[in-house]
Design a protein that fits this description.
11 helices; 411 residues; binds 5'-O-[hydroxy(phenylacetyl)phosphoryl]adenosine
Amino acid sequence: QKLVERLKATSQFYKKKLGDKVGAADIKSLDDLKRLPFTEKGDLRDNYPFGMFTVPLEDVVRIHASSGTTGKPTVGGYTRADVELWTEVMARTVSSAGVTKKDVVHNAYGHGLFTGGMGFHVGADRVGATVIPISGGLTRRQVMLIEDFGATVITCTPSYALVIAEEAMEMGVDIKKRWKLRAGIFGAEPWTEKMRRELENKLNLEAFDIYGLTEVIGPGVAVECSEHNGMHINEDHFLAEIIDPDTGERLPYGSEGELVFTTITKEAMPVIRYRTRDRTILHNEPCKCGRTNVRMEKIMGRTDDMLIVRGVNVFPQLIEKTLLSIEDIEPHYQIVIDRPKDQLDTLEVWVEASPKLFQPIDTRRLDELQKRVAHELAQTLGVSAEVKLMGPKSIQRSEGKARRVVDKREL
Ligand code: DLL
């Protein structure tokens, strides 16, 4: 009720969206959430960068962002109270994996606009742990410091954790003997139970799944407890629903569908019924751990075509838009993603260059063009891609839907 009241008074966007049809007095039970309209990624895009904020910019103390669908990022804003709220839910998150002030937390999530690094930093700091804000990359150095600083907990994407394990093995480190890791909190991309066993085995730790998104707060929306039977959602701040992605109808607990969130306590950028496009199932049976809030299963996929490559959200439409803005590039392309054993994801973009560069073949210009395309893609996607320029008609033409994305990863 308070949220609807406040949004009607402070948000141009929600004033229009809610109109006169629903008011605070219509919300009498959680079930009445159904009366409220959805908010979509497109709404955030249309109101880029700060149009979804409901407080003046001077009250916003932090901005984070993740990649959007069109080259402009998806923005999240935080007031002082929102940062406090985030700290609180992240403190709960790390506590759920047993982190206390006695732990040394090796935080290898990216620090910057991405919410992972800062989110874990404030949460682990709040419980008094010793935090190592190492961020991602320079893997040999990570391997050295995990041992030297005696890290007991590691936080990063599951795929990067495997890369660290692999590098350590290559360097001849006896992980089981020399490392003290006991827990890993892995998220920001989908991963399977098979991957869990692999990580637990290689790194000699207990792996916890964590879920979140920039539009809602960042990491800290939901996390597993030691029962590992789903991620408990912090429902005192984030109300979750599952809907049928085609009809928008609310589905009962236990059904698979699209996850939708309403943030009831956030100040700078609250959202009503935000459609995450993530597919999962909600469960409300009590959990042995004693927590009473709803659990969500592992994310099973997306209802749109967003890909996550090395933890970065990548939209195929954005690759297309970038390619087509470059002269001498033809509208025939394919995106190939793979995950070689224990290595980071590879992203290849195969695209045809103008036939005139092949008659006769102009290797100098093709070379320049290849570098240019790779540069433009890295700039807009925020993740590097290997570009293969192809000759005329070498990308298979389709008679129906083009198969633009070939994802060979076994997620
Ligand atoms: O990935 C926030 C985060 C940081 C979560 C660190 C966990 C750990 P975004 O960059 O906005 O935020 O991407 C959000 O990533 O809609 C999901 O599709 C995907 N995602 C996040 N966590 C998981 C997970 C961060 N545990 C998008 N399993 C979400 C599967 C996940 N997918």
